[in-house]
Amino acid sequence: xxxxxxxxxxxxxxxxxxxxxxxxxxxxxxxxxxxxxxxxxxxxxxxxxxxxxxxxxxxxxxxxxxxxxxxxxxxxxxxxxxxxxxxxxxxxxxxxxxxxxxxxxxxxxxxxxxxxxxxxxxxxxxxxxxxxxxxxxxxxxxxxxxxxxxxxxxxxxxxxxxxxxxxxxxx
Length: 171
Prior knowledge:
Number of helices: 1
Strand content: over 45%
Largest sheet: 10 strands, antiparallel
Helix content: 10-25%
Radius of gyration: 22 Å
Low-confidence stretches: none
Order of helices and strands: HEEEEEEEEEE
Oligomer: single chain
């Protein structure tokens, strides 16, 4: 009997807590600018008609990055692996390394979606967002990169032969 009463009290407290929460939530997560990557690219090549769609590989040949807490270069040798389907959706996964001006290497894995289709009104639309993950030495001044989520969006420029990615930390 005591177990049943205890369970009932806990369930009631939980339900009261859940019902007291606002829907939709009153506050959305905030974003804080973290860095801008200017990535230079090599010649893309593709593999048509795989069992998953069209595979495109875009070599990452270098570049630079800069933000309020870090600055440096992008290491040659990574690549952006894209998989496109017939519906205009492309999944991307870019894997590469960066090196800070003070000599610290950081691994980057950036996954995202590119979609060129139509919005709910039938108008052409373009969506390109990704979520980079960083692997920095935990004992370095860049260890904070390991413990946050990030989102990025491209910035297109005719002056730069590559892709510019602006990255924000989700606070």
